[in-house]
Amino acid sequence: MSSPSLCSELIFYVNGKKIVERNADPEEMLLGYLRRRVGLMGTKYGCGSGGCGACTVMLSRYEPLCDAVLHYSVNACLLPICSLHGQAIVTVEGIGSTKTKLHPVQERIAKAHGSQCGFCTPGMVMSMYTLLRNQPQPTMEDIREALGGNLCRCTGYRPIIDGFKTFCEASACCQNGESGRTCCMENINTVRNDMSEELFNMDDALPLDSSQDLIFPPQLTLMARKQGDGRLCFQGNRVKWISPADLKDLVKLKAEYPDAPLMVGNTDIGPKMIVKGVLHPLIIYGGRISELRTIKWGNNGVTVGSACSLSTLKEVLQTAVSELDPNKTRVYQALLQPLLCLAGKQIRNMATIGGNVLSANPKYDLSSILAAAECKLQVISKGGTREVILNEEFFTGFGKTVLQPSEILLSIHIPLSKPWEFVSAFRQAQRREFAFSMVNAGMRVAFKEDTAVVEEIDVFYGGLGPTLVKAGRTCKELVGRSWEEKLLSDACRLLQEEVGLCSSAHGGRVSFRNTLALSFFYKFYMQVLLELKSRGVDVCDVPLEYLSALKPFKNEVPQGKHSFQLVPEIQSSMDPVGRPSMHRAAYQQATGEAQYYDDIPPVKGELFVSMVTSTRAHAKIIAIDASVALTMPGVVTFISAGDVPGQNRRLWFNNPEELFAEQEVICVGQIIGAIVAETREQAKRAADKVQVTYEDLLPVLLTIQEAIEHQSFFHPIRRLERGNVEEGFGKAENILEGEMYMGGQEHFYMETQGLIAVPKGESGEMDLYVASQHAAYTQEVVGITLGVPSNKITCHVKRLGGGFGGKVMKIATLSAITATAAHKTGRAVRCVLERGDDMLITGGRHPFLGKYKVGFMDDGTVLAADITYYSNGGCTLDESTFIMEKALLHMDNGYRIPHLRGRGFVCKTHLPSYTAFRGFGGPQGLTIIESVLHEVAVKCDLPAEKVRAINMYRDEESYTHHKQVFSPRNMICCWEECLEKSEYRKRLSAIEEFNSLNHWKKRGIAAVPLKFGIGFSKGFYNQGAALVNIYKDGSILVSHGGTEMGQGINTKAIQIVSRILKVPMSLIHIKETCTGNVPNAAPSAASFGTDAVGMAVKNASEKLRSRLEPLIEKHPKYTWPELVVEAYCQKISLSATGFFMGPHTSVDWEKSEGPAYYYFTYGACCSEVEIDCLTGDHKNIRTDIVMDVGRSLNPALDIGQIEGGFVQGIGLYTIEELQFSPDGVLLTRGPSQYKVPALCDVPPQLNVHLLANARNPHAIYSSKGIGEPPVFFGCTLFFAIKEAIAAARRERGQSNSFPLSSPATAEKIRMACQDRFTSMATSAEKGPCIPWTINV
């Protein structure tokens, strides 16, 4: 091979600027290059595997095959810079800025309140921008598809859609209308005169002007047309990259280097290299080979080049389906089904059909359909070309095919369908879109003309083994038989015998996957029956009530109605309080200018730290050997317990917490040490080389049940009791016992945890730029670790890219480790956890088990309930006791149960310690009592809504079970208004009718009330402080102890200052949260941030106003700047501190009494769902929420918090499932395995109404805290699903009462809808049962 001795020049453009890279590193992805080399921080790191969309940019290239410039949204985290030769990149900074001019996309997402924490916003902006470059007047479906690969953990997606739908031609309409469905333009409920539905106004929005867009650089067009670059070669420290000039050169290279992977889209090889550390010394890039991208039509079908992207394939097939005879395009129609939901748009733009096939991963959907369609592969090598049939024999194992290492897949021929041939595709995933399938299938059957006699049949499955599985014996038995019920019965029996998984199969979910295999075939059977019937063939009828099973759920964009009370007419137009004001940093977040901790430019000499974590759940540390790691390039040092200058071990409420494990590890993921190196990649690679020798210890306790058996609990064990439970049981007409399990939840904040520690070199001072919700605690822990007083440690927090409670405790440990590294090296050290490490180390929401005994009357009145709560606290205490306390304090929800007892046990196990999460135990405590009432309703044969209503608190002066007085009036108002606005009773009747007419699809509806305590039950946390400074030019700087993490605390603080000082919000600025400005601040948590900070800011502002009042009276015509200058000249202090001493809250646990909360936030929610009984899939149809937020300080922000919390609740109760192995290893360590709600999971109708005429005398301007309560409303989907399952079970003669744990995943739904297929699947399981995962 004639390889160049020197590296080639890499030429590409970023935001119109030419970049010539003479030392391009093949291992460097565009994301890192943009952030570290170009200094463009708007493109964010969210996961590093293409699973979140935070790193979305637009890629443009000239395509000679069609003589056009093409624009794609792509994931920068998976795009090697070496693949960019001759291409142009546009980032969020390249389309607009606050310094020059906003792009309309940036402006509209901000104005529509579509940016909360803002970390995902640049990615959202770039996905939409790319769509508009390709389609200036998109449809709502276009928008839905464009944003399908972008995750948001804050907003609930609706406001993002609201902003972007203004680009649609019919922007005012939801475009979701269906028969029987109400369009968003049709107002069902009348709105009072003092109520408004308008959260924003786009009348003065910037118009879309394509002439302002960056043009594709002409030089790149000329380069592409010349095609004279020849072979390109780039050499990095570890990897060499060769980009051949043409197909001939590629064949030659592959012959010389057969083991080198051929890369195009990098969506398969990339994650393995980035996340798993796989090293390929040589990579051959095939993206420049035009022959691999060629599409040719022939008489028998289409031949698609192997390097054609999945997006291109989709467009080609859609064109064919729209133009050709439908009978000829059945294969194409089947292929389009997975192509519409396979991965996100960005991945489909990068991934290729050849890569999808050759990856030989059975979770990838296309192979099963391509095999069923008898597609042919054209393969080329130095020896010539050959044709290979794509079937089960093509795949020899997981990730392996029959192709020789030197062979190249040139193209795939996808045939047209033959007469009397029918093809279908099926898949079921954790999430309907943007998720790998758990099982997929491709099925094809051909009949003798005008008959129902099977001539050929092929059934292929992915997900039922390490590779593609063909049901060959089954198919052979079915040939020659008539398509009838007997064939179906025999086929299911044969399929179960042939392809059924054994109990210990890789991946678990055995019964579910086996059931899906049969359910898919049953759906195929019914589809084909309908086709034959439509052609006049004499076959049995498909019952009408079965037909809905054949209609897939339609993914739609969320729309909704919102209402809130207008401010009084007498309120000054200059007073912003109570008005829907935009998040103050929304424009900066939409332009990528908003700075997060990892956006801070590198400090001179900066190092990086990477954690070394335990691989055992419980073991003695015998030895730690970092010698190999210390010899690796760039490694500076290894730190462990012996390097801590202060305390490595500290007490937290009398329980020990270790910074570094010294003698014993107590969970997988516990930090043992850390590598410090020159780059983050070097630190990570070296950390993987540190050898730890263990001696396993017993017992290893992982689950709640194991902890109960061993009586392994943290202390204290809490108890609350009202009345006399035994007496209540004695009076009850019915007694019921049961239990409810709720799984945990990963925070999945878009910004992973981390910080920068900068030693100041004097007196032990150190600055930390940290992503913390509790800067004061971080300061304290770092001081203890370093052995210095807190006044030497200063924590700076600009903003967080999401927190949700996860950045309160664990970030303090990470900060102390990073500070230790900085102390030892004397250099600044940066820590940025990778997504997988973040999920492994930092813990999440506690799993809970509630065991109950309840006594009730025949009318549903509950007299007594005894509930024992168990939570899995993990290996250390963290905040588990406080979380259990909150669960117990919420165990009554809104119900007056005369005799109520609750006991709470925090289980001590060998899992990573669970920690605070939005709701803080409230959702678990509330859900278990709701489950109790649900089961009571079932036993009484009453609607659950009636049982809930009959048991609600009603007295104006009511007392909780811990004897705190409150008025339930607003809760009752929310409940009644919710039922009215949701048309609950009317829809309940419609659901009953729907269920009677549909056998395989069922609907359910559920409504719940809410009483949620606001504030900290530990009274000393209920305090706030602030500092307000007025400068001589009239500008105002506010500092406070809260943390801005998307909830809008800074915006509300500015509104308060604006009201009191009577100045425009534009004059007020909040720079950061800093422990040097406001000491000893409480955490931003418990929905109490605005209450505490708002009151403190108000206090400081009122002090300033009172100082200025004499001057205002003396000089009434002075402008604000003139007034300030006069005050300065009069030696009036223009700086004031503010303090809020909140209420004393506490609980006497011995007496079961005490005012635990400052006040209560009330609400009610109603949700409707539809389930597919054959697959377990479900669709959230509609949700209505009515919330008492008092007098909202900012309705736009409050409604955003309600929607965002609710959508996080969707995840908690339906799809977010943490999986642990029997060894205690977390298996779900990234967005590929762990699914948070995406756009497709949000109900198409999401309506939120703020209760009118609500007041709250306890908090700032009669407002209420709202951050945490709405998470619980996700349980309405859980109970609606349970109602739908019950409808299916009743129809099949089964019990209404059945166990269902949370989350209600597709697996649980399907297996609860018992039928002949579930029976066959479970009875046919083979071998001993070794669980793949455990319920912890």
Automatic annotation (TrEMBL):
Q: Which cofactor does it need?
A: Mo-molybdopterin; FAD; [2Fe-2S] cluster
Q: How cofactor binds (record note)?
A: Binds 1 Mo-molybdopterin (Mo-MPT) cofactor per subunit. Binds 2 [2Fe-2S] clusters.
This protein's record includes keyword Cell inner membrane: no
Q: What Gene3D superfamilies does the record point to? A: 3.10.20.30, 3.30.465.10, [2Fe-2S]-binding domain (1.10.150.120), Aldehyde oxidase/xanthine dehydrogenase, a/b hammerhead (3.90.1170.50), Aldehyde oxidase/xanthine dehydrogenase, molybdopterin binding domain (3.30.365.10), CO dehydrogenase flavoprotein, C-terminal domain (3.30.390.50), Uridine Diphospho-n-acetylenolpyruvylglucosamine Reductase, domain 2 (3.30.43.10)
Q: Does the keyword Glycosyltransferase apply?
A: no
TM annotation in the entry:
none
Residues forming coiled coils = none
What keywords are assigned to this protein? Answer: 2Fe-2S, FAD, Flavoprotein, Iron, Iron-sulfur, Metal-binding, Molybdenum, Oxidoreductase
State where FAD binds: 262-269, 365, 409, 427
Subunit details: Homodimer.
Q: Which family does it belong to?
A: Belongs to the xanthine dehydrogenase family.
PANTHER family found in the cross-reference section = XANTHINE DEHYDROGENASE
Q: This protein is called what?
A: Aldehyde oxidase 5
- Where along this sequence does the record place binding of Mo-molybdopterin? 773, 804, 918, 1086
Q: Where in this chain does the record put each 2Fe-2S ferredoxin-type domain?
A: 8-95
Domain FAD-binding PCMH-type spans what residues? 234-419
* Active-site residues, record numbering mapped to chain: 1268 (proton acceptor)
